[in-house]
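REVIEWER CHECKLIST
Item 1: Sequence provided? yes
Item 2: Single chain? yes
Item 3: Sequence as submitted:
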Amino acid sequence: MHSPRNLLRLGLTVAVTSLIAGCSAVSSSSGASSQSSASVTPSAVAAPSGSQLAGILLPVSSMPSGFKADPSSTRDTGSELPSDSAAPVPASHVCQDFTETSYIQVGGITTTDFAQSDYLNGDQTEEIAEEIDVFTGTDAQKVMTSLWQAFGTCASFKYQSNGTTVSETLKRSQLPGQGGDAIKAVMVSPAFDGGQTLVAIRVGPQIITTLDSSSGSDLGSPSVGYAEQVARRLQAAR
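Item 4: Structure as written out by the authors:
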């Protein structure tokens, strides 16, 4: 089963900081990484096992200095054969699910073949998440379509966090040269400094998702580069 982490981004404005001080949830930042504009052309590839997928995800050496793997959110499905099934997310939960690391579930199809990893900085205030999910038939295309539609539905939404109502705005776009096979969504809130970037790239029956939240002016944009790197590693592993 996927292990989502519910993110509560730090770097809050003064009005909100006092309300959530001492919470254990963490946020994400990518520090020294820079956004990549390289195009990755999706193509059909043979479905690897969960343990093979884990080896394709970016290692800690690809993360900014000071980040370490979080064992509680790093897992794969081993040698299980790929299979998937419909698992619709209630409409009332869709937008808030974009604040979690395994937001791929918004696509409405659950797969048994996946790998995910999570990296935290030293004081656990910053986080970078990456995941690869393998689907069967045309389900990967269906998930990408559902994600695109959900990003549009969640252009503006609110959710409760530690007793505080947080307002978010989300702007979706398709990555250049990749059509509907690569999506970027940037989330910002007046309650937080910086922002959060979610990226999904389809490579044949596999979908790569990354999440990067930053308190800096980059709004988590290195998430694009991480996803493109994983896509290239996945293609090279064919």
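Item 5: Key structural point noted by reviewer: Helices lie at 14-20, 50-56, 94-97, 139-153, 223-236.
Item 6: Recommendation: ____
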